[in-house]
Amino acid sequence: MAIDKIQSESINLADNFAFTGTVTGAGGANTPFFQGRLNADQNVSSGSGTLAQFTADLDTASGWDSSNYKWVVPSGQAGKYYIGMAVNGSSSSNNSVSWCNIQIWKNSGAILYSDGKTTSGNSGDMHVLPNFVSGVFSLAVGDEVKFYATVYVTGGTPKFLGGSASPTVGTIFKIIE
């Protein structure tokens, strides 16, 4: 007698199953995918929102506009996207970073905002302030995403740290149509 119907209460959902046919509708490619980072420190003005001047590490759909530092949703790629940014704010003066915020913009307005306040640091360091923000947003073809941050310092030259040790990075990838 062949089994042609299984009731959910008779399946242990904690078990592993080996499928011999084709499974459809599971998973996805998560493309397009973009990740940009600062290859070197970017000096900024204290208290001034500054566009991060990323270099594309990965850009599967060539959406990155390196002359205007923005990512543009390519043709046929509208959907829900994960967007995130991490900033490492610093100063050339010891213990002088007091605040850092991030703003991720869609077209002409901020869609995501985050603040981070420092705690007292050790004498002799630059008092690096890491900050991270992320969310999921609907993007249409042609929408532009920009990554801004602000570092507030009480002395020295404020900057976003770049390079591999303390990167400032932005990430975008599609999660669903």
Secondary structure blueprint with pairings:
Layout: E1 33-37, E2 42-43, E3 50-51, E4 55-59, E5 64-65, E6 70-72, E7 79-91, E8 97-106, E9 109-117, E10 129-139, E11 144-153, E12 158-160, E13 169-176
Antiparallel strand pairs: 1-4, 1-13, 2-12, 3-11, 5-6, 6-11, 7-10, 7-12, 7-13, 8-9, 8-11
Structural commentary:
The protein has 177 residues and is an all-beta fold. It has a single domain (30-176), classed as Jelly Rolls. The protein contains no helices and 13 strands. Strands 1, 2, 4, 7, 10, 12 and 13 form a 7-stranded antiparallel beta sheet that branches. Strands 3, 5, 6, 8, 9 and 11 form a 6-stranded antiparallel beta sheet that branches. A hairpin with a 4-residue loop joins β5 (64-65) and β6. The protein starts with 32 loop residues before the first strand and ends with a strand.
Straight-line N-to-C gap: 42 Å
Q: How is the biggest beta sheet arranged?
A: 7 strands, antiparallel
CATH C-level class: Mainly Beta
Indicate the mean pLDDT: 84
Low-pLDDT regions:
122-127
The whole-angstrom Rg is 22 Å
Total domains:
1
Total beta strands: 13
> Could you state the oligomeric state of the chains shown?
single chain
CATH topology: Jelly Rolls
What fraction of residues sit in β-strands? over 45%
The CATH architecture comes to Sandwich
Outline, from the CA principal axes? elongated
Order of helices and strands, N to C?
A: EEEEEEEEEEEEE
Helix content: under 10%
Number of alpha- plus pi-helical segments: 0
Compact summary:
The chain is mainly beta and 177 residues long. It is 0% helix and 47% strand.
